[in-house]
Each structure stands twice: as C-alpha cells, then as structure tokens.
Amino acid sequence: MSPVVRACQSSGAEFIILHTGQHYSYEMDQVFFEELELPPSDYNLEVGSGMHGEQTGKILQGIEKVLVKERPDAVLVEGDTNTVLAGALAAAKLGIKVGHVEAGLRSFDRSMPEELNRVLTDHISDWLFIPTEGARQHLLKEGITRGVVRTGNTIVDAVRQNLVLARHKSNVLHRLGLEEDDYLLATAHRQENVDDPVKLKNMLLGLRKVSDQLNMTLILPAHPRTRGRIAEFDVDCQGILVTDPFGYLDFLELEANARLVLTDSGGVQEEACILRVPCVTMRQNTERPETIEVGSNLLAGTDPQRILKQAKRMMLAKRRWRNPFGDGRAAQRIVRKATASEK
Prior knowledge:
Blueprint: H1 2-11, E1 18-19, H2 30-35, E2 43-44, H3 52-70, E3 74-78, H4 82-93, E4 97-101, H5 113-124, E5 127-130, H6 133-141, E6 148-150, H7 154-169, H8 172-176, E7 183-186, H9 191-194, H10 197-214, E8 217-221, H11 224-232, E9 241-243, H12 248-257, E10 260-263, H13 266-275, E11 279-281, H14 289-294, E12 297-299, H15 304-315, H16 330-342
Parallel strand pairs: 1-2, 3-4, 4-5, 5-6, 7-8, 7-10, 8-9, 10-11, 11-12
C-alpha cells in the first residue's frame, strides 16, 4: 500500500492510515513506516496475534469505532489478511464505499484462510481493483461485474519505488558476506505449511537438499510463527542460514540479487517475477497463476524431492519473461478512481 499512500500525498487527497497491529513486531511492522519514509499511522489498534475469530473480531470492533468517528468517503483495503476482511466488513455495514486493492485473486483452496478473506472481501466491495484480466474472469464466474477496474498491481509500483530506496539504504549483502547471484533465498509462513509438522519438516529438508546440491548458501528469514514451529517440532535446520526477519528494504535487496527464491508467499512470487528472479513455490496451488504462465515460477508442494527437482529446473530459466502485473502506475489509477467517485 505504500504507493497508494504516496499517490494520496502527491494528489493532495485527504487520507488517514488505520493500522490494526495484526503484524506487531518491529521487523514486521514499524520498520516499514520508517524505511519507506511513510507517515506514521493515525490509529493503531494493536490487536496482536490470536485465533482467527478472535483477531478478526477485535479488528472489526476497533475499525468500526474509528470509521464512526472519522466518517471517511471511502476505505481502501489491500490483499487477503484478516485486517482486509474486517476493514471491508466494518465499512460496508456503515454504508462507506469499499475499494479492494488486488481483487479477484483465487487459489481455489478454501482451506486457506487467505482465500476466504479475499473471496468475502470481493463480494462486499464497491470497487474491485484487479491486477490482471485473469482476476476479472474469476470475478465474472462469481457473478461480480460492477465496479471492476483493471489497474495493475500496486506491487509493481512498490517494487520499483522501494528498490531505489533499497539501493541507497541497504547493505545487507555486505553484512551477510554474500555476493550477487550467488545465494538462495527462502521464506515460509503459511499456516497450512508451518503448522503441520510433516509439511514443515519436508519443506526444510527440501531446502537443505537444494542448498547442498546447488552448493549455495540458503538464507531463511524466519517469520515469528515459523521460528516458533521450528523449535516446537524440533526441525533440523542444519545447512540453512536461519535469521530473524529483515526490514523490507533489506529483504527487497536480498530478493533482487538472489539466484533463486523458494517461498510459500503470494507476494514474494510476484516480487520475484517483477525482479526477474526465478521462483519455486512450496505449495500445491497459487493465486498468482500469471507467474507460472510467463515462466518465472514453478509449483513444488512440500515434497523434498520435488522441491529439489523444481529448483534445478528454475536454475536453468532464462530471465526474459514479461512482467504480467502492470506498468507501475496502479496506485495513481486507484486514488484517481476513489477520489473521483467521492465527489
């Protein structure tokens, strides 16, 4: 959402930032505001972690109070988190227009909490800001035709804008003793993966095999949830450089210079595609099928041998694929549409 904030600033649109505190550690929260030179949030609900129902309920209650006080003309939510669903629901119940940034994505796996969040949010939004024509087709199949606007994905704007900052501010390669194009980067945080001891152990074994057979350092910045499960399930991480989460600029710099990315994150699949870094997704499905279609990404699931096989295939990929997610001006289109509709 950083490009949307910047687009509001540059256009003179009046706005407030409501931060729910769903992500609450410094590395997953405040560092973004500081590094990306964003204004501080006007509100922080500080809901923290918890069961899905508990967390979503706290966010819904907190957002509703702020919206009653502020009475904005529109609420913009982005992605598929509990914050997104609660924000959209609170606004819709108060008769405030809702704009869903990154609408229309589907993994078609209803066991994923994120899939439920994105589907429900799409069905109560007034504007559906879609990144691709594939997203439009998903919405059409669900009977959603009104308010659909193709803008491209703000992740393109974010990568391009913030990579400039990363080049100036980050020295993460030097700190870790890494050379460009000579290391592997991995992430793992999805509930369906890290909360399952068999899947988590298989994923980590797969990463170890990739690192060993490609003879390259593999870095795993561990989400707090992942680090907790690694300890709880006593998972062997020998051969993997497990670190605390990095700030966004450090992580972006690591992504941009990696030889290969292995992940279960949707956003990382997109970022790798935009940065022309080959990617292997440790899931059976993806809500970013465009990355598969252009050749930047392969699905591997959590089987160690398949992770290794797909990693070897992507190491041979030519980095000439086209970026399917837009031209980097999505945020301008979103803010223009939302502010024009307010008048």
